[in-house]
């Protein structure tokens, strides 16, 4: 099992896409040719890029370069704006050609996290992304031209204003092996979260000792296995509460909790509402 190549079907003459996802939208390991700009509009977003786990707070950005392997973990009560584009949308970048630089190289040597950007640069990026969103949603006459203009603004920002860093090459064989292991772990959890699984079960499945697995999992997810599994189950429970008219007890059992009191307590700690309160809230929002 390996990271999935995501192929998003964009217009060849206008390879651009913009959409929003909430924190309940889990996305497994994947990569694509597109550049992806993530803007956290609400809450805290947990995202893995290559072999690094990131916690992006509200108002922060991250630029994912073409070919980077990335994934999104459960991030309750968060919202993110995602902008994707292919380099071919830039029809002519003579100033880069003069310096014998490819776009992928340019995007690979910048500080991709906004925590390293100054406030003026952040505000420029916010403005550009808000205008992109407005144009893409409104689709007024000439919106494609307006979007191209803002993307050129972003390109100039990347070239001129974002701090650069030495492009230290990662240890790709080790990184790939770790990502393959992590993908297998996530697959096991997805297939078995409704059952009574333990750290020992997953460690045996992946071929690690318990102690090594615990350290490995914490390194790549920023969470203990127990906390991650409970959080994953609660995310699944939120889906049931929103989409299915089932008793709370049945939902708790469906997502792997054998003790309803424990489910209620952990759910409220994670979501801020009891399962019953959350269900009432989602019913109200539907109507």
From TrEMBL:
<protein>
    <recommendedName>
        <fullName>HTH araC/xylS-type domain-containing protein</fullName>
    </recommendedName>
</protein>
<dbReference type="InterPro" id="IPR018060">
    <property type="entry name" value="HTH_AraC"/>
</dbReference>
<dbReference type="InterPro" id="IPR020449">
    <property type="entry name" value="Tscrpt_reg_AraC-type_HTH"/>
</dbReference>
<dbReference type="InterPro" id="IPR013096">
    <property type="entry name" value="Cupin_2"/>
</dbReference>
<dbReference type="InterPro" id="IPR018062">
    <property type="entry name" value="HTH_AraC-typ_CS"/>
</dbReference>
<dbReference type="Pfam" id="PF12833">
    <property type="entry name" value="HTH_18"/>
</dbReference>
<dbReference type="InterPro" id="IPR011051">
    <property type="entry name" value="RmlC_Cupin_sf"/>
</dbReference>
<feature type="domain" description="HTH araC/xylS-type">
    <location>
        <begin position="183"/>
        <end position="281"/>
    </location>
</feature>
<keyword id="KW-0238">DNA-binding</keyword>
<dbReference type="Pfam" id="PF07883">
    <property type="entry name" value="Cupin_2"/>
</dbReference>
<keyword id="KW-0804">Transcription</keyword>
<dbReference type="InterPro" id="IPR014710">
    <property type="entry name" value="RmlC-like_jellyroll"/>
</dbReference>
<keyword id="KW-0805">Transcription regulation</keyword>
<dbReference type="InterPro" id="IPR009057">
    <property type="entry name" value="Homeodomain-like_sf"/>
</dbReference>
């Amino acid at each position: 099992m390996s990271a999935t190549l995501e192929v998003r079907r964009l217009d060849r003459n206008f390879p651009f896409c913009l959409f929003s996802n909430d924190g309940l939208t889990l996305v497994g390991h994947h990569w694509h040719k597109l550049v992806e700009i993530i803007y956290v509009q609400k809450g805290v977003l947990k995202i893995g890029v290559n072999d690094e786990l990131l916690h992006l707070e509200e108002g922060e950005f991250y630029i994912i370069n073409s070919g980077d392997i990335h994934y999104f973990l459960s991030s309750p009560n968060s919202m993110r704006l995602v902008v994707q584009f292919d380099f071919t949308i830039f029809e002519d970048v003579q100033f880069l050609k003069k310096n014998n630089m490819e776009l992928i190289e340019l995007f690979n040597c910048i500080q991709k996290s906004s925590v390293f950007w100054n406030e003026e640069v952040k505000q420029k990026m916010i403005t550009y992304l808000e205008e992109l969103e407005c144009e893409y949603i409104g689709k007024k006459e000439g919106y494609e031209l307006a979007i191209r203009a803002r993307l050129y603004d972003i390109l100039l920002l990347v070239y001129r204003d974002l701090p650069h860093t030495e492009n230290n090459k990662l240890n790709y064989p080790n990184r790939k092996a770790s990502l393959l292991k992590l993908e297998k772990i996530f697959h096991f959890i997805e297939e078995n979260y409704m059952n009574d699984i333990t750290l020992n079960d997953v460690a045996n499945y992946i071929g690690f000792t318990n102690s090594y697995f615990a350290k490995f999992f914490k390194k790549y997810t920023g969470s203990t296995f127990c906390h991650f599994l409970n959080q994953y189950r609660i995310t699944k429970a939120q889906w049931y509460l929103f989409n299915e008219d089932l008793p709370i007890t049945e939902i708790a059992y469906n997502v792997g909790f054998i003790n309803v009191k424990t489910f209620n307590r952990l759910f409220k700690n994670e979501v801020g509402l009891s399962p019953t309160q959350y269900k009432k809230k989602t019913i109200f929002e539907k109507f």
